[in-house]
């Protein structure tokens, strides 16, 4: 379940990258940032829904 946390962090960084690339009018960067956000965010959210949030042991 540590992988889900890492993917959530990657999705969070993709949000910052998307905002920055849109602000700089970098369309290719915005495209890849949105793609990363979609893939990593979708995987992390669906894993949390399917398996539940990881608990601390």
Structural class: mainly alpha
Q: Helix fraction?
A: over 70%
Q: State the end-to-end distance.
A: 12 Å
- How many DSSP H or I helices? 2
Order of helices and strands: HH
Integer-rounded radius of gyration: 13 Å
Stretches with pLDDT under 50, minimum 5 residues = none
Determine the strand fraction and express it as a percent band: under 5%
How many beta-strand elements?
Answer: 0
Largest sheet: none
The 3D shape can be described as elongated
Quaternary structure:
single chain
Q: What is the total domain count?
A: 1
In round numbers, the mean pLDDT is 90
Keywords: Membrane, Transmembrane, Transmembrane helix
Transmembrane segments: 31-53
InterPro entries: DUF2759
Protein name: DUF2759 domain-containing protein
């Amino acid at each position: 379940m540590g992988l889900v946390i890492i993917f959530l962090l990657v999705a969070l960084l993709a949000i910052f990258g998307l905002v920055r690339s849109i602000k700089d009018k970098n369309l290719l960067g915005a495209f890849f940032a949105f793609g990363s956000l979609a893939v990593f965010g979708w995987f992390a959210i669906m894993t949390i829904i399917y398996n539940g949030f990881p608990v601390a042991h």
